[in-house]
């Protein structure tokens, strides 16, 4: 017995795995003084003028505002589709405003899904290939890509349409494929720019229902929309006006930090 105790002793002095309190999860998006000026044909357009913004894991944020306010520009900056002229940007705690295109491409592939108003599917690829492509590009095995694709298409009510070409689908169906493509790599952040902007009311309802369902499971979403009904599905509404945040309102609910969102932030930091 005493042998046992002696034998057991050396194991004891190691550091006790103390149950440390979990650190607060990093915001998914943090922007400080973000600015973007477009230099087109005429006078420069100050589309985004010093935006401070924090989006926490699990939030569903709607960005509304008049046409030309700079909403799309803001979303493009957050997704690295355009570069800011000034300010700082962090995604999942990582400073990204200094990233060049190659690093942004990797970050987007792994961690950011993007859905636009006009689907942007590859027209000469089947529905299945459109959804699998980003997974393959992110390094998934063909089998894993197929499995994720099958799961998502079933979830989005598109089972049986795998072999269809995008042009053979309705607008609502195409947008659901675009959503599947954006979500296939389980991105920490989903960016959507008028995701139902070109759909009829039935298609709009469908997209809204799906976004709400993913949000309920912890998906962080930043969505630009003109549509008050779409915005009301979010739990936070940012009014964007003249390149600035004019209002930032929490729509009750208290659904801020969710387990899904938190673990995804950790994934993101790897
Ligand atoms: N690539 C560009 N070159 C020059 N000007 C641009 C460019 N992109 C946007 N702008 C201008 O920047 C301003 C903000 O545009 P942005 O697309 O961000 O607005 P928005 O709020 O998304 O509008 P909408 O609701 O109509 O989509 C507009 O005045 C627009 O004309
Ligand atoms: Mg826009």
Q: Characteristics of this structure?
A:
270 residues; alpha/beta; Rossmann fold; six-stranded mixed beta sheet; four-stranded antiparallel beta sheet; 36% helix; 23% strand; disordered N terminus; binds adenosine-5'-triphosphate; binds magnesium ion
Describe this structure in words.
It is a single chain. The chain is an alpha/beta fold and 270 residues long. The protein has a domain at 29-120 and 171-262: Rossmann fold (3-Layer(aba) Sandwich). The chain is built from 9 helices and 10 strands. The protein has helices at residues 2-8, 71-78, 101-111, 127-137, 142-155, 171-183, 201-216, 228-232, 259-269, and strands at residues 29-38, 45-55, 60-64, 86-91, 94-95, 112-115, 189-193, 220-224, 236-241, 244-250. A 6-stranded mixed sheet has the order 6-7-8-3-9-10, with helices on both faces. Helix 4 (127-137) packs across helix 5 and helix 6 (171-183) packs parallel to helix 7. The longest helix is centred in the C-terminal third of the chain and has 16 residues, at 201-216. The model is unreliable at 1-9 and 254-270 (pLDDT under 50). The site of magnesium ion has 2 residues, from helix 2.
